Amino acid sequence: MINRTRRLRRTENIRRLVRENKLTIDDLIYPLFIEEGENIEAEIVSMPGIKRFSLDKVSRELDEVVALKIPAVILFGIPANKDETGSETWNDEGIIQQAIRLIKKNYPDLYVITDVCFCEYTSHGHCGIIHDHDVDNDATLVNMAKQVISHAKAGADMVAPSAMMDGMIDAIRQALDQTGFTNLPIMSYSAKYASAFYGPFRDAADSAPSFGDRRTYQMDPANRDEALREATFDDQEGADILMVKPALAYLDIIRDVKNNFDRPVACYNVSGEYAMIKAAGAKGWIDEERVMMESLLSMKRAGADIIITYFAKDVAKLLLKK
Ligand code: PBG
User: Fold this and answer.
1) Is 217 within 8 Å of 230 (Cβ atoms)?
2) What are the residues whose beta carbons fall under 8 Å from the beta carbon of 284, sequence distance 6 or more?
């Protein structure tokens, strides 16, 4: 007897009935780069379609996001001034704090998540305070706590710490709870790898380290078990959502986190993944739209509940047409 698995593939409607995974607009978070200054709407060369906006220029982009029914944005700030500690991150009048207030005032239902890190704000481009040529973990935690409280006071709906400091979720949860923000959730960049796929983002956010690299705090791409260790600590410290980053080269990690924790799993479809598809698509070497949908679907299949992606608007346009 031949096991005829092809029977259930014969027509589109039977394929619809047995389809196991689906990508929807509900799954998507759209990253936004907000730059301090005026009249800025700057194309990012390595990320076609993505721009850095100053606050006076960002409305059209936000109108579009809302019209496309994308539920959430994650904000990255590019400040006018950087210093050794990244002190602009906890300035209540800083660029991200202003952005949160503007968005919540004009688009109250759009869910606003903030990236909590320092690399765009430090003169050296590392994700914390430097002592002896390395990031000082515990001193950085103190500043992360100040940063999240400032984001929370400005009205952020969720914070997403990405610095890969040990104990960061515990420090942030305590800081939020002690200041009355017990209901503010944390999405942790739990397993964030030291990846070459972040290249275009560092141009976009002006955040490349001026010396060394991030391998003393971000994870070694060779490690899988360690990702579970990272996720375990974040789970215990009270992270509400666990994130894996990058996504496409780390689908095994997404599945591991999904199988081992009773928390929603997010993944970050990062700048390099976006750039590769856009570049090959522009050359006509791949069908951009289909490769985009197939890669994002693979993240759902791997176990992601939420996908942070620069493709969010493209996907939403496609799905709304159907
Ligand atoms: C750190 C941060 C980075 C990204 C998101 N948050 C850069 C880094 O760790 O160097 C990368 C996102 C992407 O490549 O799309 N603030």
Assistant:
1) no
2) none
Give the DSSP letter string of 71-121.
-EEEEEEE-S--BSS-GGGG-TTSHHHHHHHHHHHH-TTSEEEEEE-STTT
The secondary structure of 118-156 as a DSSP string is STTTBTT--SS-EETTEE-HHHHHHHHHHHHHHHHHHT-
* CB 163 within 8 Å of CB 117: yes
At how many degrees (to 10) do helices 168-178 and 225-237 cross?
10
Q: How far is residue 163's CA from residue 184's CA, in Å, rounded to a whole number? A: 19
* Cα 288 to Cα 294: distance, rounded to the nearest angstrom: 10
Contact between 303 and 265 under an 8 Å Cβ cutoff? The reply is yes
pLDDT tens figures, 181-190: 999 999 999 9
For 49-72, the pLDDT digits (tens) are 999 999 999 999 999 999 999 999
192 is catalytic: yes
Pick the catalytic residue from 57, 82, 192, 278.
192
* Active-site choice (245, 258, 278, 300): 245
Q: Cα separations (Å) of 202 from 17, 48, 134, 159, 239? A: 42, 15, 19, 20, 26
Cis amide bond preceding 246, omega within 30: yes
Task: Identify whether the C-beta of residue 243 lies closer than 8 Å to the C-beta of residue 189.
Answer: yes
Residues 306, 160: Cα–Cα separation, whole Å:
13
Q: Residue 245 catalytic?
A: yes
How many other CB atoms are there within 10 angstroms of residue 110's CB atom? 17
Mutational pocket test of ligand 1: of 34, 143, 162, the residue with most ligand atoms within 8 Å of the beta carbon? 162
Residue 220: pLDDT over 90? yes
Distance 268 CA to ligand 1 centre (A): 9
**H or E element, residue 267:** strand 265-269
Tokens representing residue 27 in the block:
């799954």
